Amino acid sequence: MSRLDADSPERAYGDFSRRLSYGDYLHLDLLRAAHQPVTDAHDEHLFIAVHHVSEVWLGLIVRELQAAMTLLDAGKTDTPLKVLARVVRTQEQLTNAWEVLKTMTPADYLQFRDAFGQASGFQSAGYRMVEVLLGNRNPALLRPHAHRPDLHDPLLAALHAPSVYDLTLRLLAARGLPVPQDVLTRDVTTPPQFHQGVLDAWLTVYREPDTFWDLYELAEKLLDVEDNFRRWRFNHLTTVERTIGFKTGSGGTSGAGYLRRALEVVLFPELWAVRTHL
Predict the structure, then answer these.
(1) pTM above the 0.85 mark?
(2) Torsional sign, CA 214, 175, 208, 204
(3) How distant, in Å, are the alpha carbons of 6, 7, 11, 272 from that of 2?
(4) Annotated domain spans of the chain
(5) Helix, strand or coil for residue 190?
């Protein structure tokens, strides 16, 4: 029998009455059922699809960040590097979703914008969890989820737990680097603040990469994550500006103005500052 015959479509499984099919495994009927536009506007289908895809990617990022944090908390650096590399690749897909949404013009968007009321990406629990795990902490941002304990409770727990950067700094201290005690015992519900002592610890790592190679790689991978996080926020801003200009956002924020201020958030300040001082 030739290879062509062996690989012919006729030889593929055709009876799935008692087997798990592709659609069954992925619950595609459920996925399609979730796609429910509330208007007849053509571009509302695009709008929903892009946000559905983005939420799936956000969920994966949360899962991978949590896995990396568990490993860092256990003092490991090798596997977290692989996991964070996956986060970076996933962030790239998430950012590219804005490029698809940018094909929607302002006139297209206005055909259905009023139909979803105050619903807004600002209320995305997946995005908020990513932000909290990375260290951007603001209890007020959890309020849109107060009516949903299944969403609010995990966010609140993450807010009161160390961020990925807190765990990284604890790992540096465990390796003998001089991370100040007040940093190690800081209130983790607050956003990170630049600390000269932390910068000094990272300077040691960056000046002696052969000695601290795994920590050096970890620092660069964390910077990749924040770099991509900034790119996502920037693409979000430009998409909003070209679609609604400076109108108020549907969720009640100032829209583009709020997103511009969000670009100023720095998650790992010493990792950016270390370049200046080398």
Answers:
(1) yes
(2) positive
(3) 6, 9, 13, 59
(4) 41-169+180-277
(5) coil
CATH fit for domain 41-169+180-277, picks 3.40.50.300, 2.60.40.10, 1.20.58.480, 1.20.120.1630: 1.20.58.480
For tokens 């509302």, name the residue.
44
Whole-angstrom distance, CA of residue 56 vs CA of residue 52? 6
Q: Smallest Cα–Cα separation from 52: which of 71, 39, 34?
A: 34
Token couple for 191: 């956003």
Tokens of residue 33, six digits: 């059922």
| pLDDT by residue, tens only, the chain of 278 residues | 455 566 666 677 777 778 899 999 999 999 999 999 999 999 999 999 999 999 999 999 999 999 999 999 999 999 999 999 999 999 999 999 999 999 999 999 999 998 988 888 788 999 999 999 999 998 988 999 999 999 999 999 999 999 999 999 999 999 999 999 999 999 999 988 999 999 999 999 999 999 999 999 999 999 999 999 999 998 888 888 887 776 665 666 666 777 788 778 899 999 999 999 99
